[in-house]
TrEMBL record:
The keyword Transmembrane applies. The chain crosses the membrane at residues 21-41, 149-171. Keywords: Membrane, Transmembrane, Transmembrane helix. InterPro entries: CHASE8, DGC-Regulatory_Protein, GGDEF_dom, HAMP_dom, Nucleotide_cyclase, Rev_trsase/Diguanyl_cyclase. The keyword Membrane applies. It comes from Sphaerotilus uruguayifluvii. Residues 177-230 form the HAMP domain. This is Diguanylate cyclase (GGDEF)-like protein.
Length: 414
């Protein structure tokens, strides 16, 4: 996957680019204007200087007094930092020429650059009293002034660059705070919601209107998803409840009991711990239906389920397999006797008549068959078969002692 730049980085890069291009253009423009202005000022200055020098040496030129000419020219050359200063006769003969000592090293470089960039030479005629041309003053700048200016300009430019970049960096920080941070927060929120399915979380307010509106829309969408998700969860819970529980009693159904048995077998095989299965079938339940009606029979089944739940431990599984058939998974089981004890306790608690309201009170016992792992089988079918057959034998034995139905409440009994 290609690494994409972050928004903060893009913003920072954009600022730097804008600042650099602006500075470069501004510097170039300022340089060109400066060069033009300086050039014209320098040319004007040299021209005035040449003219003034011409007036100063008029008499000396007329009398060819070379020493006097030099005396005038030398201070001018030093003061004005001139590169060349000479006096030429109308026939082209050089009368006096003054040159400063040739610069060396950095000074030579400065002079070279200055003279290349600034064409700073000027000339003015030397006129006698009648206005006749008796010579010409020619002079040129040394070039170092320009370099000095250039260096000052560069220094100022650098200062500007530093200040601009500082301001650009501050602006980027501010933009980061107002744009990048809210977007980052929104992204982190989306990620956390996706991972933890926490649709009740909301985006906080953002300082920028568009981002705030985005957050608000996002929150509205989350609210809708939240409601939808809750409905889905409720549907799923109710589907799961229906798939794994008996609708009448709320106990585990046959499929769920089968699954818990498989888990119990696996766990017991791994840890070498026994477990027990009780198979229970109501005795004479049909008579309750026939006598008091199906609704009363239902109530009795519900009460029976409640009693079963009350007898066993929290972790044991009580299931209604169908009709008046129940089953209990006892896990863990310390010893086989514990299963018998619980079966006896169930038998005892079922002796108490069931109060079916207007229909009256009914007795309805449960015949129980017990199977324990690993004593009675090491597969689920084997265990269920053992428990079923044991229950059948118990029912047969019970039938021999059962009192006949008296057709009144408390009549159907084992
Ligand atoms: N009220 C009610 N009755 C049911 C329900 N499911 C099955 N039955 C009835 O329960 C009865 C179960 O039949 P049996 O097990 O033969 O009845 P029993 O009288 O207990 O017979 P034994 O087990 O031999 O003692 C049938 O009459 C079914 O119609 C139910 O959900 N509610």
């Amino acid at each position: 996957m290609t690494a994409r730049p972050t928004l903060a980085r893009v913003l920072r890069r954009g600022h730097w680019q804008v600042a650099s291009v602006t500075l470069l253009l501004f510097g170039l423009l300022l340089g060109l204007i400066g060069h033009a202005v300086l050039g014209s000022m320098q040319a004007r200055h040299l021209e005035l200087l040449a003219r003034a020098t011409g007036y100063s040496i008029e008499a000396a030129v007329m009398f060819r007094d070379l020493d006097a000419i030099r005396e005038v020219l030398q201070p001018i050359q030093r003061r004005e930092k001139l590169g060349l200063l000479r006096v030429v006769l109308p026939d082209g003969q050089v009368l006096v020429e003054l040159r400063p000592p040739a610069p060396t090293g950095l000074a030579a470089l400065q002079a070279g650059i200055g003279q290349t960039l600034m064409h700073d030479h000027a000339s003015a005629p030397v006129l006698d009293g009648n206005g006749r041309r008796i010579g010409e003053v020619q002079l040129s700048g040394e070039g170092s002034d320009f370099i000095e200016l250039l260096l000052w300009g560069l220094g100022a430019g650098l200062l500007c660059v530093t200040a601009t970049l500082g301001v650009a960096s501050l602006m980027t920080r501010r933009l980061e705070r107002s744009i990048v941070e809210p977007i980052d927060r929104l992204a982190a929120l989306t990620r956390s919601i996706r991972c933890e399915r926490a649709f009740d979380r909301r985006a906080p307010a953002a300082p920028i209107a568009e981002l705030h509106a985005l957050g608000e829309d996002f929150n509205a969408m989350l609210a809708e998803i939240d409601v939808h998700h809750r409905h889905l969860q409720q549907d799923r819970d109710s589907l799961s409840q229906r798939a794994w529980h008996d609708a009448l009693t709320g106990l585990a159904n046959r499929a769920s009991f089968q699954q818990r048995l498989e888990q119990a077998l696996l766990a017991s095989q791994q840890h070498g711990q026994p477990f027990g299965v009780l198979y229970l079938d109501a005795d004479g339940f049909k008579a309750v239906n026939d006598t008091a009606g199906h609704a009363a029979g239902d109530r009795l089944l519900v009460q029976m389920a409640e009693r079963l739940r009350a007898v066993v431990r929290e972790g044991d599984v009580v299931a209604r397999l169908g009709g008046d058939e129940f089953a209990v998974l006892l896990q863990p089981l310390r010893q086989v006797d514990d299963a018998r004890r619980i079966a006896r306790e169930i038998g005892r608690i079922m002796q108490v008549p069931f109060d079916l309201g207007e229909s009256g009170c009914f007795r309805c016992g449960l015949s129980a068959g017990i199977a324990t792992f690993p004593q009675d089988g090491d597969t689920i079918p084997a265990l269920l078969d053992t428990a079923d057959r044991a229950m059948y034998r118990a029912k047969q034995a019970g039938r021999q002692h059962r009192r006949p139905l008296r057709g009144s409440p408390e009549g159907a009994a084992t």
